[in-house]
Every structure is written in structure tokens, then in C-alpha cells.
Amino acid sequence: MGRIYQVVVLVTGLDGQKITIDLCDNEKDMQRITVLELKQKIVGRIPGIPAGRTISDMKLIFGNKRLEADDTRLCEYGVIHKSSIHMVISLDGGPSL
To answer: Tens digits of per-residue pLDDT, 74-84?
Structure first.
């Protein structure tokens, strides 16, 4: 029987709660997962995302890097098994610049 490989990303939500997101079952699949795919998985799991907010309002931070381009693969940012990613939501308001 082959080794079971499961990539799990721990995401800290708006209320500080940590949610585990299962991304894939093997290293090969992990090499293909994009920032957008992670955001789509988060939306279904994180409670408390304000009404009317979209995936484009979601900002993900890994280490000292913001995961900006939705089409960038997570592995390009160095995301690995049990990585901890923080999420923030852009909200309306604040001063105009």
C-alpha cells in the first residue's frame, strides 16, 4: 500500500479561529494548487465572512509574503504541509487617498 500524503493548510480566520483546509492528497497535486483554489476552499469553511464580500476582497498572508496573484501556485510562495496562512478581508471605509 502506498504512502498517504495529505497537504493541510491552517488558516487563521477573522475571529482568530484556526481552520484546517485539506488541499490535496499528494505532492504532485500540491505543485498545481493556486492561490485562487485555496481561496475558494476557504470561502466554504470560514464562518463570519461579511455579506457582500468576494474572493477578491480576501487577502492571504504566508510568512512575510502576501499571496497576491490568484493564478500563482502555492508552492511558488513556499507553502508546504501544515503551513499557517493568515486571512484578512478588505472592508469599505477609511480615508480616501
So the answer is: 999 998 888 88
**Which residues lie closer than 8 Å to 57 by C-beta, 6 or more apart?**
89, 90, 91
The three cell numbers locating residue 95: 480615508
Using a cut of 0.70, tell me whether the model's pTM lies above it. Answer: yes
The residue extents of the domains of the chain are 7-89
pLDDT tens, 27-38? Answer: 888 889 999 998
55 and 38 Cβ atoms separated by less than 8 Å: no
| CATH topology classification for 7-89 | Ubiquitin-like (UB roll) (3.10.20)
Q: Spell 42-51 as b/e; 16+ CB within 10 A means b.
A: beeebeebee
